[in-house]
Amino acid sequence: MTGWLFDLDGVVYTGQAEIPGAGAALNELAAHSPIAFVTNNASRSNAAMAEHIRSFGVDIADSQVMTSAIAGAQSLSEVLPAGSRVLIVGSEFLAACVEQAGLEPVLPTADLVDELDSQRQRVDAVLQGLAADVGNIDLCCAIAAVRAGAKFCATNPDLRLPKETGFFPGNGSFVRIVQECTGIDPEVFGKPEATMLTLAAQAQKMSDTVMVGDQIATDIAAGKAAGMRTALVLTGVDSVHSALALPPSQQPDVITASIATVRAAVEDIPAVRCDGETAVCGEARVHVEDNRIVHSGPNAHATAAALALSAHLDRPLDAGTLPERFA
C-alpha cells in the first residue's frame, strides 16, 4: 500500500505554527493511506511531537512519529545483546529510548571519564544525540569509550540548528569532536541515512512509500537512500532553483508548493514528453537556452517538465525563468 512519510519542521509546521493547509492535507491522505513522520530531533519525545501535530486537528498515534533517538535505540538493540551498556550523550528521552529497547543506558560523569579511559569500566556502545546541556564531560566520556573499542553511533549528523538570529551548533558539530579525537566515524541512524525511514515504513506496513521533505541534503537524500519516491515542498529550506542546480541523481522526483498540494503533484501531474532540449507537461513548455530554462505555462507543470528535462539531458540546469517558489 502506498504510504507517506513526512518531515516535520518546514513541512507540517514552522516553529509552533501550522503550515497552511497541513492538517487538512494530512487528514485527507490518512483516510486512504498510512502516514508517519520522521525527524532528526533526538531530544524531544515522539509523544510531544505527536501532540503538536494533533493540535492541527490530525488524529495520529504517538507511534506514528519516528525520531532518530527511537531509530538509534531500536537499531542498537538488533545488534547488541540484551542488557548491553550504552553511553548516552544527549537527552533523557534518548536514555529512555535505549532502556525501552532492552539496553542499559549509562550516563556520563567526571569520574566515568577516568574509568573509561583506564578501561576500569567499559561500555558496549556510544549513542550520541543533542541536548542543551551536552558539555565537556559528555564528550570526554564518549571519546574515552570509543577509543577503548565501544561502537560509535550518532542519532544524526546535522551540523547546524537554525534559529531566528542565525545558527547554533547541531549534533553533528559535537560528533565531529569525537571523530577528530578518535579517528573513528560513527554509524548514523537519522537522515540522510535510510535507517529511520525504513523503520518508520515497516512499522506502518508501507510498501510503495513517498518521502516528503523541505531539505534535499537530508529529507530527499534519505528517501533516495531508502529506495522511496521523493517530493520536495517549497515551504522550508530548498527551492526550485537549488533543486535543479544539483545533478539529476540528487534531485527530488517531484517539487510542489506545499504539503497541501503534494498528493496531486505525486498522483495527478501529466506525463512529461522530452524532445532534445525541450519538454512539455500539460499546458507547460520548457526549453534550454545556454543551459538556462525558459518556460511558459503553469509553474507546477513547468517545474515537473524541467526536472524531467534535467534527467533527460543528464545534467544540472539553471532554473532561469522558473520562480524559486510557487503557490
In short:
This protein is α/β, with parallel strands linked by helices.
Descriptive notes:
With 327 residues, the chain is of the alpha/beta class. Helices cover 35% and strands 23% of the residues. The chain has a six-stranded parallel sheet, with helices on both faces. A five-stranded parallel sheet has the order 7-6-8-9-12, sandwiched between helices. A four-stranded antiparallel sheet has the order 16-17-18-19. The radius of gyration is 22 Å and the shape is elongated.
Total DSSP helices? 12
Mean pLDDT: 96
Which fold does the CATH topology of the largest domain refer to? Answer: Rossmann fold
Major sheet summary line = 6 strands, parallel
The structure class reads alpha/beta
Q: How many DSSP E strands?
A: 19
- Distance from N terminus to C terminus (CA atoms, Å) equals 29 Å
Low-confidence stretches: none
Number of domains: 3
Write down the overall geometry: elongated
User: CATH homologous superfamily of the largest domain?
Assistant: HAD superfamily/HAD-like
Percent of residues in helical segments? 25-40%
Index terms:
alpha/beta, 23% strand, Rossmann fold, six-stranded parallel sheet, five-stranded parallel sheet, 327 residues, single chain, 12 helices
Compile the SSE list and pairings:
Layout: E1 3-6, E2 13-14, E3 17-18, H1 22-30, E4 35-39, H2 46-54, E5 65-67, H3 68-79, E6 85-89, H4 92-100, E7 104-106, H5 110-117, E8 125-128, H6 136-147, E9 151-154, E10 160-163, E11 166-169, H7 171-182, E12 187-188, H8 195-203, E13 209-213, H9 216-225, E14 229-233, H10 240-244, E15 254-256, H11 262-267, E16 272-275, E17 278-281, E18 284-289, E19 292-296, H12 299-313
